[in-house]
Every structure is written in C-alpha cells, then in structure tokens.
Hints:
Layout: E1 3-7, H1 11-23, E2 27-31, H2 34-42, E3 48-52, E4 54-55, E5 58-59, H3 60-70, E6 75-81, H4 85-93, E7 98-102, H5 106-121, E8 130-132, E9 135-138, E10 143-146, E11 149-150, H6 155-166, E12 172-173, H7 174-181, H8 191-205, E13 211-214, E14 218-221
Parallel strand pairs: 1-2, 1-3, 3-6, 6-7
Antiparallel strand pairs: 4-5, 8-9, 9-10, 10-11, 12-14, 13-14
Helix pairs in contact: 6-8
Amino acid sequence: MDRLLVVEDDRELNQGLCKALRADGFVVFSSLNMKDARQQLLLGGIALVLLDVNLPDGSGIELLGSIKQATPEVSVILLTANDTDIDIVEGLERGADDYITKPFSLSVLRARIHTQLRKAALPAKTGQKICIGHFSFDFQNMQFLVGEDSVELSKTEQKLLRILVENQGCTVSRGDLIDRIWTDGAEYVDENALSVTVNRLRNKLGAQNDIRTIYGIGYSWGKG
C-alpha cells in the first residue's frame, strides 16, 4: 500500500485531500509546513509527495530540492496557483515529476498520482530492462528481444513502445500519442501515421494480442 505525504498549509484543503486519498486506499500523512514535512520524510517509506509551493515557513521549491537530493526515487507533484509559471518552471528544473494548478479536479489529481506511482514501479526507473512475458525491452541500449530474437525498431516505434509499456493496462489516447511521439514541432501530423506505426510495431514484435486498439479512444499494452 503506497504512502503519500500531503504538504499543504491550507488546513481545509489538506484535510479534504487526505480524506479523499485515504478513501482510495492510500496511507496518507499530513503536514502543514516544511518543518513537519521534513520530520515525516525522515521516517522514510513515502512514495509520493503532494507539495504546495507556498508554505508558511519557506518555499516548497526548496523542500523539493532537498527531497530529490536525498531520495530521488520519491515522486513529487507540485500544487501551485494559476499565476505562478515561474515556480512551475523552477520546480520542473529542480526535479518535480509533475504539477497541478489550483483549483483542480480531484479526478485529475488522482490520475496524476496513479501515473507517477506506475512510473516509479517500472524497472526502467532504475535503468533495468523491462521484461513482460517473453518480451525484453532495454530502451537505454536500444535492444529489443522477443524470446531470444532481436528486433530492430525505428526511433518512432521505440517512442510508441515506451509510452505503451510505461502505461501498461491503461489506454493512451491517439491525441496524446501523437503529441508525445512527433515532437519535432510539426503543426499537423496525419493520424494515419500513428495507425501505420502501431501496425508496424505489432508486426515486428508479434504483439497483435498485446498492443490493443481501444476503438474511438486510442491504444493500450495489455487490458484497456
């Protein structure tokens, strides 16, 4: 069971977040300031921190830097106001895994939390191979095995594969895939290019039953 730490000085918001996340099955700890948050973190076992940027006894960005220096494996999602773009940029540069602006939807926050926890659980996080059944994917060294057979993948196919396996069991929309794969600044990418890439990847890996089409939405690796 994942342990979360909510660091938010707005007592009402803090309590509301803790109540909602505990109802989702998480073990949740609460801090209203940096001092208490540091004490909670020293106890260890925290998987993810929801961190307000503006705290009464210092900057959440400063605490973020300390967390990432001491425990880089702990995921951090910044909670920030709409008008603090500078904080967002600085936070991402200091290692924040994601951010969400206030006011925010609880369902969106839940999705962001689950995404970060899934990423943290992947072998790729520690540079190891991702092994799924008879597949072995080493993105760092660009080595892709089906059983004992090596498969050559294009850069585009590698991007697609990585997104799908990093979101195993979840559907990734066609729009998100296009935005994340074709990042060369092109204003328009024909959706047919995605369909062609998916089919090529399926055929090369023999993954017709693994890369699934979720009609009208997108694709998933495994159940969607």
